[in-house]
Specification:
InterPro entries: ICL/PEPM, Pyrv/PenolPyrv_kinase-like_dom, Pyrv_kinase-like_dom_sf. With about 300 residues, the protein is of the alpha/beta class. The protein has 13 helices and eight strands. It is about 50% helix and about 10% strand. The chain is globular.
């Protein structure tokens, strides 16, 4: 079930900075550093898992199975993308039950038509406001615990304007959403106007390369946000490093240079859990017949 600590921290006024996790290794690094929550992005998990765009092509099963694995490995509450709920109201109810049973602590649903698109790309179409209100009501009615939070997102700003997006945020707050998500505001002034007008916790999407200005945590607090998610930072940093290293291998024929920072292999073996494997084998004598050169990995 949901981790109650996320709701408790938000209710107490603690700001939540949730870095994006897009695979199990990125989650491992978040665990090592320590955060109050993590965000499982649909865009980046679909890209990592299937190598396809965030355009409504992945299924509920793809999402919930992948995120359930993250929940098992995360000591912090997991906030997870659920696109449009993967269909109509009955599909949404099924999604709510599945996400909550997987141990996810907050589920984000958006008001786009299916198939949806990434919130920082053009040509997004939103459903009638009444349809999204019903989705929110169904989600709240379906969940087993109030600790499982419903995040309602509108994608209306880019194609329909600020006022329409705010009209939707007001309606979604009235429908009972726990957290409000105004996707892709285009200025700090819009961000401040949103937060000041909504009497519920608001989340900022700090997506590198997107339409929204990138503010620091202190600036976001001052604006009035309760939470920020950072879905793109880690994968973009990783992709830059990978491309640079592959190009160096292609052009220079070497895989190690001073210009390419590289994580220590021995440290990663420890991070991933080989210390526990070695301790188990030492206790139970599992390596008695191992080759002599096995010790160099210890």
């Amino acid at each position: 079930m949901a981790d109650a600590s996320l709701k408790q921290k938000i209710d107490s006024g603690q700001f939540i900075a949730a870095p994006g996790v897009f695979d199990m290794m990125s989650l491992l690094m978040v665990e090592k550093i320590g955060f109050d929550a993590v965000y499982a992005s649909g865009y980046w998990n679909v890209a990592s898992d299937q190598g396809i765009p965030d355009a409504g092509l992945a299924t509920y099963t793809d999402f919930v199975n992948r995120f359930a694995k993250m929940v098992k490995k995360s000591s912090a509450p997991v906030i997870a993308d659920a696109d449009t709920g993967f269909g109509g109201l009955i599909n949404l109810a099924h999604t709510v039950r599945g996400y909550e049973e997987a141990g996810i602590s907050a589920m984000q649903i958006e008001d786009q038509e299916f198939p949806k698109k990434c919130g920082h790309t053009p040509h997004r179409i939103v459903i009638p406001i009444e349809d999204m209100v019903n989705k929110i009501k169904v989600a709240i009615d379906t969940r087993a615990s109030d600790d499982f939070l419903i995040i309602a997102r509108t994608d209306a700003r880019t194609g329909y304007g600020f006022d329409e997006a705010m009209r939707r945020m007001d309606a979604y707050a009235e429908a009972g959403a726990d957290i409000l998500f105004f996707e892709s505001p285009e200025s700090p002034e819009e961000m401040a106007s949103f937060c000041s007008a909504i009497d519920k916790p608001c989340v900022a999407n700090m997506s590198n390369g997107g339409r929204t200005p990138m503010l620091s945590v202190d600036e976001l607090k001052q604006v009035g946000y309760a939470m920020a998610i950072y879905p793109a930072m880690a994968p973009l940093v990783m992709l830059e490093a990978i491309e640079k290293s592959y190009r160096t291998l292609k052009s220079e024929g070497v895989c190690e240079t001073e210009n390419i920072p590289m994580y220590e292999f021995k440290q990663f073996c420890s991070d991933i859990g080989f210390d526990q494997i070695h301790a188990f084998e030492k206790k139970w004598g599992a390596t008695t017949n191992a080759p002599n050169n096995y010790a160099r990995f210890a």
